[in-house]
């Protein structure tokens, strides 16, 4: 069944159709969220909130629009909301940052898994550089960080990212440029 | 006299992408030749941009995805059985559900606590002093510095700014499914703001809605949006204004709910005292008593 048909059925409250849509995009959305939200439980929450809001907003989704940029937009908003509310929870002593639990290093795990599958392709120097780059990415402001993930990890075009953030193409390019410039200066600082 | 030209970020990006016209490209080349450090920076940025393509994505177990998907479908079914259709419904927000569980309040001891508080005031005051005079007045927020209000400070939006002193009416406030907030203001012509609540201009405009809109439902909606997304002293001040000054009891109740976790803040505490003594609604005076009695839900249920 093609996507438009699935969307139409899901708009009529068909759970199975919605689940099929969810399965089409779950890996990409979870990947974006995991790049932004370290804690596994929080990432689960943000993921679930994303798709629940997609379900609730489906009635107003126009079929001429791109479904996947629409879902990405919801995920981006949920990530930003999580980021803002994390500060409030810390202030209210509900979930102090140091007690966040896993905080697992996904990059370390990803590199290890790649090494298991293709040990002959392992390049320690490249791996070390990737880690340093990611350390720099983690110091970016939230929107810049999300733009970095969408552009370089997910390979989205500038036009798609501008649709997700509802900002002009030029602004997306400038934010991406600043992100790369920041990463460059962090790498130079590490070398010094 | 020759103007000193410095290329903007947009021009630098256009140069990297080869999109400058011949004249601009020549100017850019001349500037880069004259500024070797900036030239090196741009070249390094270009090289890094190429290196970053296909940066790895997080790997995660299939079980993690399965769990997330099952969680979504389970909550969809739960929502069908509890047809609120409200995005703020606990089933729609697992994190908020956990927070609300911690915030649930044991009401059995409230009458005794409120009575004790009032008795304390009665026996503690001077014989000839009215009760309300013992309370410091809540600050006049029109004169509080940093309060986000269009008539208190400029708010820039859509490339134009709204100067001080203009009278503006709120025509519409709407939240889209993708969470963008749309606020329509009208003066001699209409302005529309669009953005996320995390944007400061939107926060300022919501503060304006709270102070100026004639529609109490929209004022309540403004509180709900601000409470979900904002933090800090400025938010406290906005909500304290609503708690003590809003003419509608539903709006004051909304502000009280939003502030109840901040009752340790001196400003908030004074405002709840004022509500306890002066609010015309007995229910809201009771609510203020609950908050002030000191048994916050985090103390009661916190481990």
What does the overall shape of chain A look like? globular
Q: H/E order of the elements of chain B?
A: HHHHHHEEEEEHHHHHHH
Please state the structural category of chain A.
Answer: mainly alpha
Strand content of chain B: 5-15%
- Average of per-residue pLDDT values of chain B: 69
- Structural class call of chain B reads mainly alpha
Protein architecture, described:
The complex is a heterodimer of chains A (about 190) and B (about 300). Chain A has about 190 residues and is mainly α. Helices cover about 75% and strands about 0% of the residues of chain A. Chain A has nine helices and no strands. Chain A has helices spanning about 5-10, 15-35, 40-55, 65-90, 105-115, 125-135, 140-155, 160-165, 170-190. The longest helix of chain A has 25 residues, at about 65-90. By secondary structure, chain B is mostly helical. Chain B is built from 13 helices and five strands. In chain B, helix 9 (about 235-245) runs antiparallel to helix 10 and helix 11 (about 265-280) packs antiparallel against helix 12. The longest helix of chain B is centred in the first third of the chain and has 20 residues, at about 60-80. The termini of chain B are far apart. The relative contact order of chain B is 0.08. At the A-B interface, helix 2, helix 3, helix 4, helix 5 and helix 9 of A face helix 1, helix 3, helix 4 and helix 5 of B.
Key attributes of the depicted protein:
heterodimer, A: 192 residues, mainly alpha, B: 303 residues, 3-stranded antiparallel β-sheet, two-stranded antiparallel ribbon, 5 strands, elongated, disordered C terminus
Short description:
The complex is a heterodimer of chains A (192) and B (303). Chain A has 192 residues and is mainly α.
Question: Topology, please?
Answer:
The complex is a heterodimer of chains A (192) and B (303).
Chain A: H1 3-11, H2 15-36, H3 40-57, H4 67-91, H5 106-117, H6 124-137, H7 142-153, H8 158-165, H9 169-191
Helix pairs in contact in A: 1-2, 2-3, 2-4, 3-4, 4-8, 6-9, 7-9, 8-9
Chain B: H1 9-16, H2 22-34, H3 36-52, H4 62-81, H5 94-103, H6 110-124, E1 155-157, E2 160-162, E3 169-175, E4 181-186, E5 190-195, H7 200-212, H8 216-229, H9 233-245, H10 249-259, H11 266-278, H12 282-292, H13 297-301
Antiparallel strand pairs in B: 1-2, 3-4, 4-5
